[in-house]
């Protein structure tokens, strides 16, 4: 079978157009993966990987308070006694999002040990300028109360009544997740965050 010269020319003219089609189609996929808001949350001590019970409750409540699409990132750290690796991971993730998704508003958060992770991340781990991508910080059961001054006006630091970790209480069960979720403190924080978006 032999192709006439016109068929060969048409094939050569169309081939370069087809070879660029995947590159053109791939561009919108990158933009589509950038949410309007992303919650970057560090779970509490000994909770399984992810954002933990308080982080889940915060995201759920926030979704009911804004129409913006919300992404979720669980800080990658062992959640045992160390906060350093978590603060580094939180910082690196926020920097990556600021570069790849500059219009995404970041919400930092943490419960218990995770709140200390978020505190530490705000102190020099997140470079100047990148902090402008952080809309709000929501902390629960925070034993350090040490968020950096650049974040003070956009931080809510919740402490359940009787919690001995973040307050002067002596009721250890007050530090557990249900004290924050069932008391409305998480919902209150979500309202604060929604007001900062």
Count of individual beta strands: 5
CATH topology, which one? Rossmann fold
Please state the CA-atom Rg, rounded to the nearest Å: 23 Å
**Per the principal axes of the C-alpha atoms, what is the gross shape?**
globular
CATH superfamily (homologous) name: Alpha/Beta hydrolase fold, catalytic domain
The helix/strand series, from N terminus to C terminus, equals HEHEHEHEEHH
The number of distinct structural domains comes to: 1
Fraction of helical residues: 40-55%
Overall mean pLDDT: 87
Alpha plus pi helix count: 6
Q: So, CATH architecture?
A: 3-Layer(aba) Sandwich
Regions with pLDDT < 50 over 5+ consecutive residues? 5-30
Strand content: 5-15%
Helix-strand category:
alpha/beta
Largest sheet: 5 strands, parallel
First-last Cα distance:
65 Å
Across the major sheet, the strand order is 2-1-3-4-5
> Mind telling me the CATH class?
Alpha Beta
Keywords: Disulfide bond, Hydrolase, Serine esterase, Signal
Family: Belongs to the cutinase family.
InterPro entries: AB_hydrolase_fold, Cutinase/axe
GO molecular function: carboxylic ester hydrolase activity
